[in-house]
Design goal:
about 220 residues; about 20% helix
Length: about 220
């Protein structure tokens, strides 16, 4: 009874109560920011080069909260064209509220700007000045208006070839594993709500990781 009385006294005096780490994480607010690329980042940037269809000055660094596979809140980084930051942030805010898990979220510079290496690492990324696989056309990523989410759990399947190769066990889309994206789910709906389109609906190939502003 004495301990209870002391507890009430502490509350009355406005004492700060200890909040367990798990509960604190559950309450972590969504945070985002948009900023021009710093001179230091541009100096070591390998995902942009002369001849790209957009200027480096039109690209923005987006910092955004996401829930990791570890069940904890993290801050990720994406590079996007300045005209497309708002819809992506809005969609990712919805994913955060739904606690959709993302493995990691880093600019592709962390992987030498190699799409293959970034996908193999299950890295969620956006801008990368590269062409469409098997084509001379620019990818929507080269314009900073596409994002790939959890590529390992959501591989691209093109004429039987799975990218990344480690995603082969996720080609059975009836599975419901952590981080997978399915037709009509909260992730697809979040991007549809901002006018973006999912590559999982394509017919010539399926790109389950891919969302873009124009559906390409």
């Amino acid at each position: 009874m004495k301990r209870l009385a002391l507890g009430f006294a502490a509350l009355a005096l406005g004492a700060v109560l200890f909040v367990p780490a798990a509960e604190s994480q559950a309450q972590a607010p969504f945070r985002s920011s948009v900023s021009p690329l710093s001179a230091a980042f541009r100096a070591q940037m390998t995902s942009w080069h002369k001849g790209c269809p957009v200027s480096a000055s039109d690209l923005r660094l987006v910092r955004v909260s996401f829930w990791g596979f570890d069940g904890r809140a993290h801050q990720g980084r994406l590079i996007l064209h300045r005209s497309y930051t708002s819809p992506v942030i809005k969609a990712l805010r919805t994913l955060y509220s739904e606690r959709f898990p993302v493995r990691r979220m880093r600019p592709v510079e962390a992987y030498g700007s190699s799409d293959d290496r970034s996908m193999a690492a299950d890295n969620t990324s956006a801008f990368n000045c590269r062409g469409v696989t098997g084509s001379s056309a620019w990818s929507e990523h080269a314009y900073g208006r596409a994002i790939d989410i959890n590529p390992l759990e959501n591989p691209e399947i093109r004429r039987g070839v799975v990218s990344p190769p480690g995603g082969r066990k996720y080609t059975n889309r009836s599975k419901r594993a952590k981080g997978m994206i399915h037709a009509g789910d909260a992730t697809v709906s979040a991007f549809e709500a901002v006018g973006w389109h999912w590559g999982g609906y394509w017919h010539s190939l399926q790109d389950y990781q891919h969302f873009s502003w124009n559906g390409q």
